[in-house]
Design goal:
By secondary structure, the chain is mainly β. It contains one helix and ten strands, in the order E-E-E-E-E-E-H-E-E-E-E. Strands 2-1-7-8-10 form a five-stranded antiparallel beta sheet, with no helix packed on it. The chain has a three-stranded antiparallel beta sheet with strand order 3-6-9, with no helix packed on it. A two-stranded antiparallel sheet has the order 4-5.
């Protein structure tokens, strides 16, 4: 397989709305400069060895976070910062698609208010780190077969040869 490189460029980031994936949410892709879905793994307990030498591994659980960076927009009506402040500690549906016609990740995320302000007369960004509620759902891109998706016609099976006729 050849090297494949993915870059974030023409994606979407929708927060709120109803359902998963969300319908009618607010699109914030034009504010985001960095978006990631990040897993964390936690081992519960220690490995246990029994008298016979068998070992029981600890249980491992996964938690997920949406992390990223956004350009601050505190002067905007219905902007990203306003959305995070008005929905602080609220779980909302989300949909993130890194690029058009690519992978889509959906689920529920707990919004946490982001910081506002910074250095004078500079472009200000703010970071966010929000926990997902449960595991995200991933819809991977579907590849198109080389023949354009048309099914190949099976080759016809050869006609059976007629059995010879015997006179009785």
């Amino acid at each position: 397989m050849a090297v494949t490189e993915s870059k974030l460029k023409t994606g979407t980031l929708t927060l709120g709305g109803t359902g998963v994936p969300p319908v009618g949410g607010t699109e914030f892709a034009c504010q985001a400069t960095n978006v990631r879905i990040v897993p964390s793994f936690n081992d519960d307990g220690d490995e246990i060895e029994t008298l016979c030498g068998d070992k029981l591994s600890p249980s491992t659980t996964a938690t997920w976070n949406m992390q990223g960076t956004s350009i601050q927009d505190f002067d905007a009506v219905d902007g990203f910062i306003q959305y995070t402040w008005e929905n602080n500690l609220t779980a909302v549906p989300f949909s993130w698609q890194p690029n058009e016609n690519a992978t889509v990740i959906t689920g529920m995320v707990q919004i946490r208010a982001v910081e506002m302000g910074g250095d004078v007369n500079t472009r200000i960004t703010t970071d966010f780190d929000w926990p997902l509620q449960g595991d995200p759902t991933v819809t991977w891109p579907v590849t198109t077969p080389l023949n354009g998706g048309a099914e190949e016609e099976p080759e016809p099976e050869p006609e059976p040869e007629p059995e010879p006729a015997y006179d009785q």
